[in-house]
Write a structure and sequence with these properties.
alpha+beta, five-stranded antiparallel β-sheet, 5 strands, globular, binds zinc ion
Length: 213
Amino acid sequence: MRCYCCSSKSFDECCGPFIKGDKHPSSAEQLMRSRFSAYATAHYQYILETYTKEKQQGLSVEDLAQSAQGATWFALKVHPTLAASSVDSLVGNLVSSTEDSSIDSTVHADAKVEAVTNAEPISKTNLKSISKPITKPITKPNNAIVEFTAYYFENKSMYQLHETSNFSVEDGKWRYHDGVLHDDCGKIKYGRNLPCVCGSNKKFKQCCATKSR
Ligand SMILES: [Zn+2]
Ligand SMILES: [Zn+2]
């Protein structure tokens, strides 16, 4: 079975280990996906623990369970936002620096050309500044935004929750802070013959529509 977060992986290879506490999400998107899967599987303790400390104040597992009551969360779509993709590519660069070596060399070549065209006569003071190594900050970001749409059924109606969320790192772990809801949140009508919102390539009526109750 595909993971609840609609990734191509299974639950045990995707959000499961995060919810069980065996692993920690290494990106804001992973945390967001695992929180969705926790809602889908009613793991409210995990929802609570993955808020920032500030937001955990005044929240309880009971509150979270109560606010989620009656909703069947069935699909998630993560939107490719500019900020999220740049964060991902930054993390990607850190993980697999060899893959990007071709891009790097092009950038360096261009920089070299520019440096030559803008070359000034080298005096002693210039030499000093040139010999100074160019340091590029290779720090992992501590904040990230992720935009997503989550779909759920309530009283046989279909709803969408479209949010842009703020995440930050606390004690080395990604945490959900808050989010801004978009205007298109609420009850929606979705054609039964359209491709399912979960990305299964099946018709909606033959896929997630069957989870409506
Ligand atoms: Zn997942
Ligand atoms: Zn589906």
